[in-house]
Amino acid sequence: MSEIDEFFEKFFRLRRKINEIFEDLETLIWFEKPMHDVLERCLEPLTEIIETEREIIIRMDLPYVRNKENIDINIVNDVLTVTAEMEREIDMSKTLSLCKGLYFNRFKKTIRLPPDIDPSKIKARFRNGILEIIIPKKVRRYRIRIE
Amino acid sequence: MLVKFFNEEKIEEGSIMIIGVPDAGLVGAITASYIIKQLNMKEIGYMDSEKLPSAIVFHEGRPAMPIRIFKKDKIIVIVSELPIPKEVITEFSDQIIRLAHEKGIFRIIPIGGIADQNRINVEKPYVVGAGVSEEDREFLKKNGIEILEEGFLAGIYASIVKKCYSNGLNCTVILAQSHLGYPDPGAALSIIEALNKIFNLNIDLEPLRKEAEELKVKLRELMRRALPSVRESQKGYEYTVPVTYM
């Protein structure tokens, strides 16, 4: 790898890390963005992300989503997007006074994934209204022989 | 912490006091609110503290304090619509104990969720109870509620239990297996079913069953805001095996 390539690789890695830090901060502060998007007419599902040594487990609560055919999971580059159609439109005007007359009928969530995952081995299941996506990490394992 | 009653409302001696605050799966708050609605309970007062977030709730156009006290016959329900920050836990539980003493409360019953990763695979969550006195444990057993034999209880209910223990008050915590970070009306149903059986409340479960999904959608923001205080209240202890067990 040339010095220029190496420089850019380090630069992009650093930029990705900074983005991740800001995304983490967004989830910690109180004045975070609301869990609905008026323009796209979609709601953000509650999401849990559990990271273990071998995999990343993402769980989403998707009320009013009836079956797996109503859920779409995509990964483009390192961004995972889940969209799910709800069985009926939800009127949020009683709970969100600024959303008067607005109805929402789908969930959407995007999550930036770390680079060391294996997209070909991702598994998902949908049970009792909860979507679970299991993303294995690329495990680089070497056995060292003692001389 | 301020406790204010409207019009010198009399609480009958020997009443029970049910407490529901937003915790794992918001189970405590969902259950308490549903009991209040279904029993058509009367709002008799509120609790407030300068350390609580500066927020006020509006219901049907009217302002309501986030922590409110309701009554019907010999049942008192205290419900909080805001997560109780950890700085307020001690003064909240102190006031509960003071109220229980002053008003001659027979038994304090904190209700809520006990987070379990396996909840995703379960249709009907189980219910467990923790009793402070021997009498409380007998009461739970008699009513067919499995007793929490070993393990930690953490957070606001632990604070209430500790104070009941040291003040010799009856207290039974009733918890249902629940999601940690998703509103869990299914767990609330399990608790109401248990309370129906214990106190013959005859609360109709059907409306909550029908509303369950709508609640899950509409309580997402509150759940997200409640999670940091659930974590701060050291709920993680509830997954820990106590050392005397080993």
Give a structural overview.
The complex is a heterodimer of chains A (147) and B (246). With 147 residues, chain A is an alpha+beta fold. In chain A, 18% of the residues lie in helices and 39% in strands. Chain A contains 1 helix and 9 strands, in the order H-E-E-E-E-E-E-E-E-E. Chain A has one helix at 3-28, and strands at 36-37, 42-43, 47-51, 55-61, 71-76, 79-91, 103-112, 123-127, 130-136. The radius of gyration of chain A is 19 Å and the shape is globular. The relative contact order of chain A is 0.18. The model of chain A has no long low-confidence stretch (mean pLDDT 84). Chain B is an alpha/beta fold and 246 residues long. Chain B has one domain: PAC-like subunit (Rossmann fold), CATH 3.40.50.10900. Chain B contains 7 helices and 11 strands. In chain B, helix 3 links the parallel strand 9 (127-131) and strand 10 (146-147). In chain B, helix 1 packs across helix 5 (185-199) and helix 2 runs parallel beside helix 4 (156-167). The longest helix of chain B is centred in the middle third of the chain and has 17 residues, at 86-102. The mean pLDDT of chain B is 90. Classes of the chains: A alpha+beta (147), B alpha/beta (246). The interface between A and B is medium-sized, with 21 and 21 residues.
Strand order of the largest sheet of chain A: 1-2-7-6-5
What share of residues of chain B is helical?
25-40%
- Arrangement of strands in the largest sheet of chain B: 1-3-6-7-2-8-11-9-10
Distance between the termini of chain A: 32 Å
In the residues of chain B, how many domains can be counted?
Answer: 1
Shape by Cα distribution of chain A: globular
- What is the name of the CATH topology of the largest domain in chain A? Immunoglobulin-like
Order of helices and strands of chain B: EEHEEEEEHEEHEHEHHH
General form of chain B: globular
- Gross CATH architecture of the largest domain in chain A: Sandwich
- Radius of gyration of chain B, in Å, reads 17 Å
**In angstroms, what separates the terminal alpha carbons of chain B?**
40 Å
How is the main sheet of chain B built? 9 strands, mixed
